[in-house]
Each structure stands twice: as structure tokens, then as C-alpha cells.
């Protein structure tokens, strides 16, 4: 299960941290304030979609977008993308470079999240 999400420069999120609890979690708020972007950011890590860089926000001088999913077991999966490359990283290990359209098998296996349980 996802325990925590860090979202950086993704759509309306400059730097957001969400802590989840076991069971059902509900995100509430006014229209057009980033609720859907939270789900999109999680799905972005799980599926490496959407492709491209159109979800990137220019809040700072940082030229990257990053989302980190922290799991119950203490593992972390990070997807960091610039205009020219995307890199997945598990915990503090070396990044998986050149992922293209795919999600590395190690990431998919660790997340173990499919359409039925998102």
C-alpha cells in the first residue's frame, strides 16, 4: 500500500506531501485545486503515462518533475523527469535510465499495483 506521496512540479503541485492511512483515503477540496492531479501523479509513476512533459509546472527554476511513492514496507519508488530523460529509482539505488515508454520490471514488481487496486 502507498503510505506517502511526494509531488514536485506536477500540474498544480509545487511541492505537496500526502500521508495516507490504511483503508480508504479521501481527498477533498474546492474545484480546480489539484485533487485529480494527485491521482494522475500516482498513475504517472505506476504506468509511466502520460508521455511527454506537458504536466510539468514551472514554479521554480527547477527543470524537472518528480513524484515519490513511499510504500508500507519502507520502500520508495521515484520517477523524475526532465524534458530530455526519465529516470526511475528504487530507494537510494542507482536510477534506471532510458526507460522510454516502459516501467522497469523491478518497479512494477515492487509496486504490485494494477487497475483493480488503484
Features:
single chain, 118 residues, alpha+beta, Rossmann fold, 5 strands
Explain the layout of strands and helices.
Layout: E1 2-10, E2 13-19, H1 35-47, E3 65-71, E4 76-81, E5 86-90, H2 105-111
Care to describe what's here?
There is one protein chain. With 118 residues, the protein is α+β, with helices and mostly antiparallel strands. It has one domain (2-117): P-loop containing nucleotide triphosphate hydrolases (Rossmann fold, 3-Layer(aba) Sandwich), CATH 3.40.50.300. The protein is built from two helices and five strands. It has helices at residues 35-47, 105-111, and strands at 2-10, 13-19, 65-71, 76-81, 86-90. It has a five-stranded antiparallel beta sheet, with helices on one face.
Output the strand order for the largest sheet.
Answer: 2-1-3-4-5
- Spatial separation of the terminal alpha carbons: 10 Å
- Tell me, what's the shape? globular
| Average pLDDT reading | 87
Counting DSSP E segments of at least 2 residues, the number of strands comes to 5
Number of structural units classed as domains:
1
Order of helices and strands: EEHEEEH
Q: Residue share in helices? A: 10-25%
| Low-confidence residue ranges | none
CATH architectural name? 3-Layer(aba) Sandwich
How much strand content do the residues show? 25-35%
Q: Outline of this structure?
A:
By secondary structure, the protein is an alpha+beta fold. Helices cover 17% and strands 29% of the residues. The protein has one domain (2-117): P-loop containing nucleotide triphosphate hydrolases (Rossmann fold).
